[in-house]
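Quick one: structure for this chain?
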Amino acid sequence: MRLVGPRRIELGGDIRGSSEACAMRDRWGRLRRHGSIFWRLSWAERGWLMQGWLLLHGVALALRWAGFQRVYGLLERWPSGSDRALDDEEWILTRTHATVRLVRGAAAWSLHHPTCLHRSLTLWWLLRQQGIASELRIGVRMEQGRFEAHAWVERQGAALNDRADIGQDFAPFDTASWSLL
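Got it. Here's what it folds into:
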């Protein structure tokens, strides 16, 4: 027997066709692919990725302990990171899309399953740190008798981390009404 990951595999038998072996190869292949993607990032992007990964976990814990209003208030009061005037729309668009991708990557390697609220708060805060204006949106709907809520980030009225028409499926709250949440 040989220990591979958290499971033991018999070396004498043919494991190439087993579903466990296929799943293990898929996990190692995915890790290798994502690992190579990580090393192709610039140092600044690696820093943003790690910051996003840590923030996803911090936001999840803080929401459990302190609730949405306190966490949002803290992140909103945190000074934004960029003092320069951002008038280069191409740079803003490039940085926005890169930050969306980095938050998705951080969520993919999270230790828990981050919700839309975790991902959206993280993306919104990282954009603020770069001086990029965006808005956190929270919407609700009734679907088959069930109350559902969803969070996403918008910039100039366009959803960044969700479908473009998400505002049609969920009725977004006005930011001023968040005191009711």
